[in-house]
Design a protein that fits this description.
The chain is mostly beta strands. It has no helices and 16 strands. It has strands spanning 2-3, 12-15, 18-28, 37-44, 50-55, 60-64, 67-76, 80-84, 91-95, 111-117, 120-124, 129-136, 149-154, 159-163, 171-175, 181-185. It is flat, with a radius of gyration of 21 Å.
Length: 192
Amino acid sequence: MVEASGLKSGMVIMLEGELHSVASAGYHAGGGQQGSAVFAKVKNLKTGHVKELRFHPGDKLEEITLDHKEMEYLYTDGIAYYFMDPDTFEQISLPSETMGAYEKFLHPNMRFPVQLHEGAPVTIAFPAAVELTIVSAPPGLHEHQTSSFKTATLENGMEVLVPQFIKEGDTVRIEVASGKYLERVRRETRKS
């Protein structure tokens, strides 16, 4: 059990019989007749719905520890996403609602931790940023080399604004939550 005042982003708690991930939590000291409170934004791990809740700082909540197992993404049939345990070749599925914004970043053979509760898959622990290759980009404008952006298409079909120096074939790091360009990934080359 954890007190509401101890909630932190990333924790998983049980509310009304369902697992919820804490997206954000903040303590607000009361004043006058208003008592202090903890405001938390939580995401239902089964449905993907996000809601904001208010707790008294001393409220007891059941904290859940999820197990992590690295799995390999296989495919989707539009209803569910299928993953395989690379050690046992056992396959599991997650409903499409649990993917949310991650859906456009999945590609076959990608590996990442799947979070399990009592042996059942709950959600994936997707990285904050992914590396993707630019498949098409217009040539850069030399006079505006650093101050303006251009639209480029990524290998997953997504369009993103990138700096003028980015060209086809470059690998870039994209923030998953916002879908924004973060940086170009430099590949080290060795001289023989």
